[in-house]
Design a protein that fits this description.
This protein is of the alpha/beta class. It is about 40% helix and about 15% strand. Strands 2-1-3-4-5-11 form a six-stranded parallel sheet. Strands 7-6-8-9-10-12 form a six-stranded mixed sheet. Helix 1 crosses helix 3 and helix 10 crosses helix 11. The longest helix is centred in the first third of the chain and has 17 residues. About 0% of the residues have low confidence.
Amino acid sequence: MARITDVARRAGVSPSTVSYALSGKRPISAETRRRVEEAARELGYRPQQGPPGYGTSKVLAVAAPLRGGVHLPALMRLTQSVVTAARAHGHDVLLLTHEEGLARCGTTAPADAVLVTDVGLHDPRLPLLRSLRRPVVLIGLPADAHGLTCVDLDYRAAGEVCVEHLARLGHRAVALAGPPPEACLRGTASVRRLVEGFTAAADRHRLASSVHPAERSEAPTLADRVLRARPAPTAVIVQNDALLVPLLTAFRQRGVRVPEDLSVLAVGTDVPGTVSAVVVPTARLGGLGVELLLRARTGTGGAETTLLPPRLAERGSTAPGSTGRA
């Protein structure tokens, strides 16, 4: 991301002259203005301007739309981590829960920078985000991250880590359960990337694999579907915080023991301490998001992607595949 000092160096003028030439706040000669505008265009520089008070409000906006397929407790935990990190730097947080709130950030919302959650692989908000005259950081990785700053758990690697763990234990048939159907249809990046990693690792190890989107209320029917599948999965990976406990209950009610009959792993934010899991590091994600926003505000940061490596915590809910169901 080009800075005003880069434009000044290219045009052979001072940073203040660049500011005046681009803002029109003071008279600048036509030749100087031409050199500044040409340098800004060549470097892709976009002045960080905005409505009155921009850059001084010490308010960070968090775009956290409340829509289907979003697990509210997980979203609130992430938001809390952002608030904690922002307050440590003397900033307040403006929570935007409606889609139109993001559009207001380009006009009237009193926020210096924007943190975006629930990012889609092909997110329709990307053109707007690229046009905002404010620093923007995405907690999520779209398919086209060009010119954007993104931070997230490496969900593709998380799917691979889970499958590789099960393959080492000798499992030959695995299932991925619980990505919320609405999140699947919307193309939520974390869901799509985890499915990609799960499928790729299963194919690499020549395991039979299946994916079963489901809501919390569908836990009993999902348990029946998994148990009746052929070949019968001996291990299940769950990506849905709200579904995990009801699904474990449904398996238990059907006489299936974990891990003796069925190994279970989870990828999520709020995972019981008895379930082996890749836990989403929400506190770290929120802190990194705020740090990247503040760096962008001072011109010391640029477009970059930071993916946190997944860590699988083994807590006793997996066992060798040879001991699985017949």
